[in-house]
Fold this sequence. Notes:
Helices cover 38% and strands 15% of the residues.
Amino acid sequence: MTKYGSFPGARPRRLRTTPAVRRMVAEHRLDPADLILPAFVREGITEPVPINAMPGVVQHTRDTLRKAAVDAVEAGVAGIMLFGVPLDEKKDAAGTAGTDPDGILQQAIRDVRSETGDDLVVMSDLCLDEYTDHGHCGVLDAGGRVDNDATLERYAEMAQVQADAGVHVVGPSGMMDGQVGVVRDALDQTGHEDVSILAYTAKYSSAFYGPFREAVGSSLKGDRKTYQQDPANLRESLRELALDLEEGADMVMVKPALPYLDVLAKIAAEAPVPVAAYQISGEYAMIEAAAEKGWIDRDKAILETLTGIKRAGADMILTYWATEVARGL
Ligand code: PBG
């Protein structure tokens, strides 16, 4: 007995005594095979261009992208998610460069496939914002509103050109209603039954996309609140999940990751398909910036966030640190 009561009968600290014990009893473990590297490739550059708000991440040339893909494979990373950045003068209201068979994203898909074959799962962002001069994820109607159904027709074309270029997985990320169904039909009707769909199921209208807008040179003014989800809503993401599954999603995703771990946990509990989470540009920037100031331990913070995302239920994580983290595991 202590002066104030009995000594504890249960001592959880016993299982924390040494690194070996802690490792043995860890409930979740990161694996390189869980990680997917998002990568940007920009048309018309001969040297990679650093992205200010994402120290350590660049807009790749076609050559340096090939190299990054090979590095990812060597580190054991599972996949790569490609984003194309066209020449400024190629941006227009309809995002034509996004459906050009020789557009930058399609070239990048071919480049990476020819370099890595089937060793790396090659995925592509299926969205118009990288290609439109107004920066929205779809085409606009006469009133300047994003026109859902006209946009679906553009997405169907994008699906076909990306699949023709050899992509394994398309990632429709525009949050248009019916996008997964239309993309599935377009793929099936053009002989691409084996191309999978990673549905951006619960994609929130987030301030944390800020650095991404620089990464793809987006000229968006305003916001995406009429198509992306409101951060206040959880239940709505279950409705999006049901629709995406009905429309043929092979995998589903929650995005951003860290501020939405409850959404991730809920979707992971409900979804009968693999679940991904996207640790986005602003999540990356926060840690890099705080670490640069010497305010947090960068490497520990990275692993802690990724472990938290895994613990919340992600089978796969898209992270700009994928190759670095995979190397260290
Ligand atoms: C849409 C898209 C975005 C991101 C991935 N796909 C931007 C947006 O919806 O505004 C953001 C990724 C990131 O911030 O890291 N093409």
